[in-house]
């Protein structure tokens, strides 16, 4: 009877995976937002983004730069502060089923991070190379850079901070210490952003073609490879899951 009661209790609880969060936060939010951004680029990139000294450039592009940078710093600070302030202080009071539910929510964070990294480090990065092979840069703050470097990169950095902080403050496995694979997954792509400074310095002093194989761009590739740490991260997650999935979590098994 105890097993039956536990089974009914587990069945009456909310599903372990919140699919609305997965599809809305993890996927749809980033895709819809960046499709709107891409539409804006297509409309105002050619009509108002070819001359950084033209009045229309200050109308359609510079306000975005001035708004997005402080907003991104504030967002990263809020995410880290909120997750730390609301952290679990005593994991002994948390049931295995609740920890398992948090693992599924952690997966939602990882899907969101992967989605954000794709748009920033892949789609808009490739687009930037195409743009500057077509249009000669006359300033560091080109329409492509305002979107790529100063919007999409900080957004995936904010999401990565959220991933790491959620695992560190909600999952006992990661709260025990600092996960090296997780550091690689988050810090590697983060370091692409400081590498932007080297990139702009090089393009300012050297007249070079916008090729991804140019030595100036090796830093982007090197730090991008750090994302392969996700394999080690999944190994750690699955290791923890093997100890959670049992009769106390799924009593009908």
The largest sheet, given as strand count, sense and whether it forms a barrel, is: none
How many H/I helical runs? 10
Number of strands: 0
Shape: elongated
Rounded to the nearest angstrom, the radius of gyration is 22 Å
* Count of structural domains: 1
Distance between the termini: 15 Å
> In the CATH hierarchy, what is the architecture at level 2?
Up-down Bundle
Report helical residue fraction: over 70%
Low-confidence runs = 1-9
Q: Looking at CATH, which topology would you report?
A: Glutathione S-transferase Yfyf (Class Pi), Chain A, domain 2
- Assembly state: single chain
Q: Would you tell me the overall average pLDDT?
A: 88
The share of residues in extended strands comes to under 5%
| CATH C-level name | Mainly Alpha
Task: Give the CATH superfamily.
Answer: Particulate methane monooxygenase subunit c2. Chain: C
Q: What are its keywords?
A:
253 residues, mainly alpha, Glutathione S-transferase Yfyf (Class Pi), Chain A, domain 2, elongated, disordered N terminus
Quick description:
By secondary structure, the protein is an all-alpha fold.
Structure notes:
- The protein has helices at 2-12, 19-48, 55-60, 62-85, 96-134, 143-170, 172-175, 180-205, 218-224, 230-244.
- It is mostly helical and 253 residues long.
- The protein has a single domain, classed as Glutathione S-transferase Yfyf (Class Pi), Chain A, domain 2.
Topology (SSEs and partners):
Layout: H1 2-12, H2 19-48, H3 55-60, H4 62-85, H5 96-134, H6 143-170, H7 172-175, H8 180-205, H9 218-224, H10 230-244
